[in-house]
Amino acid sequence: MDRTPEADDAAQKKAAPIELVGIRKQYPDGTVAVGDLSLEVRAGELVVLIGPSGCGKSTVLRMINRLIEPTAGKILLDGEDVTRVDPVQLRRRIGYVIQNVGLFPHQTIRTNVGTVPRLLGWSRAQVRARSDELLDLVGLDPVQFGRRYPQELSGGQRQRVGVARALAADPVVLLMDEPFSAVDPIVRARLQEEFLRLQEDVRKTIVLVTHDLDEAVRLGDRIAVLSQGGKLEQYATPADLLGRPASSFVREFVGADRGIRRLAVTPVTRDMLEPLSGDHDGYPEAELGSSLYDALAAMLVTNSDHALIAENGQPVGLLTRHRVLSIDYPAD
Ligand SMILES: Nc1ncnc2c1ncn2[C@@H]1O[C@H](COP(=O)(O)OP(=O)(O)OP(=O)(O)O)[C@@H](O)[C@H]1O
Q1: Which strands form 314-320's sheet, in the order they lie side by side?
Q2: Over the stretch 255-301, which tens digit does the pLDDT of each residue have?
Q3: pLDDT band for position 148 (50/70/90)?
Q4: Domain ABC transporter: where (predicted)?
Q5: pLDDT 10s digits, 40-92
């Protein structure tokens, strides 16, 4: 989507940066869930926390909105130390979406979405207008769904209501803990797509926890890989993480099929192309900037060794199957 710098500025003001400085969480029984973690998340950035079960991902997330109090360290939201802010006030600025959504079963969808605006003392008319606007934004018709109860919705629809509710008071940060894991893989892929489009519009600062590397690669601007005790193993863009794992832990974590995953985050660029020559009838087409994965898939489906690459509909060169399969892997 094209955005003017002014529109970007306006959007950015609705999001705030987060900085974790040496945070630690030791539970009363002595378990060190997070030892010493520092991480900065830029305003409007979507950062994914990933790592093996029990490595401290949820603990980190819940320290940001103070559902869990850190044992040491600082968490700065827009430069302000969150431990000095009243937790209730803080949570109104931070949307929180969890796996099973946690909708109130005896309230209608519209009432569920309006929860925080109501707490903030908005008028009935304002709350209703905002709820309907949000339902629309997440692709649910307010007329059709507004008066239903949560159990009258599918899992995927409930998940969208959870996102709408978290966005209702226009928070500066959205925390999401396994938001899409309760739905089947097809619905999940659709929700992820819709969510990315939504993020284009709202540009919140988002910290999302997942177990699913494909989800991390698809959604994250940057991915933080954690190991036990909340140790930060690598913090990088999806392409960097897959292309240059920083340690043997990360290499193992991203798995043997990282090459294929990497194709999905590497765009077709001009320097990969061979000049146009002769007859290219029958070659599959792909756009410059589309992923190598999509270009390769088109070649495989048509059993062709070449794809015709176009920019704005105009052919600009040829990509070969060999070139796709020989993208560089910097020495690990
Ligand atoms: N209240 C508690 N008391 C003691 N230990 C706890 C408590 N809550 C969590 N832990 C421990 O802290 C560690 C981190 O837990 P956390 O839930 O943050 O991990 P996670 O990475 O989100 O795990 P998962 O992916 O399985 O959800 C785990 O070893 C967990 O057993």
Answers
A1: 285-287, 306-311, 314-320
A2: 867 777 788 888 999 999 999 887 888 899 999 999 998 999 899 88
A3: very high
A4: 18-254
A5: 999 999 999 999 989 999 999 999 988 899 999 999 999 999 888 888 888 87
Query: Can you tell me which residue has the tokens 């699913």?
Result: 212
- Nearest residue (by CA) to ligand 1, atom 12, is 33
Secondary-structure breakdown of the chain: helix, strand, coil percentages, each rounded to the nearest 5: 40, 25, 35
Helix (H, G, I), strand (E, B) or coil at 155: helix
**Positions of CATH 3.40.50.300 in the chain:** 5-262
- CA 49–ligand 1 middle distance (angstroms): 14
Is the CB of 104 inside a 6 Å radius of any atom of ligand 1?
Answer: no
Nearest atom, ligand 1, residue 226 CA:
21
325 burial type by CB count under 10 A (0-12 exposed, 13-18 middle, 19+ buried): exposed
Cα(215)–Cα(181) distance, integer angstroms: 10
Cα gap 161→331, rounded to integer Å? 45
CA of 68 from ligand 1 middle (Å) equals 11
What pLDDT sits at residue 328?
66
Q: Pairing relation of β-strands 222-227 and 32-41?
A: unpaired
- Phi, psi dihedrals of residue 77, rounded to the nearest 5°: -115, 115
Among the residues of 203-332, which ranges form H helices?
213-219, 238-243, 248-254, 258-265, 292-302, 321-325
CATH class, domain 5-262, is: alpha beta
